[in-house]
Amino acid sequence: MPQLALSAPADARTDTERRNDGLPGVAPTGPTLTPAALGELAQRLATQVDLWRPLLHVNVDRRWYTRLQTGVGWEAWLLTWLPGQGTELHDHGGSSGAFTVLFGELAELTPAGTPTEPDRTDTRVLRSPQVRAFGPSHIHQVTGVGDSVAASLHVYGPALTVMNRYRLDPAAGPVLVETDRAGQDW
Fold first, then answer.
1. What gap in Å lies between CA 83 and CA 90, rounded to an integer?
2. How far apart are CA 110 and CA 139, in angstroms?
3. Which domains are present in the chain?
């Protein structure tokens, strides 16, 4: 298991300073990126270990995250997860996305309802170096699983402005519960 700090990250640069570092040969040229392009970007960022490893941090109370970098039409986030830590069922407010597991294991639950089983779900376990790319209407829940901490790198395009949270209703499937706004709720 990688050694991770249980205190604040050592990197004292601001989000703006990291955002302006640039990624030669990686930054997309347009404002709209496909899920596949976001997946490729996540893979490229994952290979830049010196970019993200110094920032890794674990919070014992909840999953930890920080914005790693932004570019034209996208933003990247770094997350750590202890076993059992996870998100609620949510979407990304119309943004497409992709994430790659840097180490550890994550479980992704997705609604897979049918007319006779609206609350049916599918679950997949992802391990390094797997990438999961998805479109703008994707709803999922992600949870750290396994015996050790996991880390993942997420890329969204365009940058997140809202995230909608859902509950899974036995008769209706995913039902919107709340909308969180960037800069206010995270």
1. 19
2. 6
3. 31-181 (2.60.120.10)
**pLDDT tens per residue, range 35-65:** 999 999 999 999 999 999 999 999 999 999 9
- Please write down the long-range contacts of 3-9, taking CB distance under 8 Å and 24 or more positions apart: 4/56, 4/57, 4/58, 4/80, 4/149, 5/56, 5/57, 5/58, 6/57, 6/58, 6/60, 7/57, 8/57, 9/54, 9/55, 9/56, 9/57, 9/66
Q: What's the whole-model pTM score?
A: 0.84
Examine the pLDDT at 128 and tell me if it is beyond 70: yes
* Structure tokens, 124: 């997949």
Is-contact 104 148, C-beta < 8 A? yes
32 touches 157 (CB < 8 A): yes
Please, what is the average pLDDT of the chain? 88
Integer-rounded Cα Rg, in Å, for the chain is 16
How far the first Cα of the chain sits from its last, in Å, is 28
Residue 85 has which token pair? Answer: 């830590």
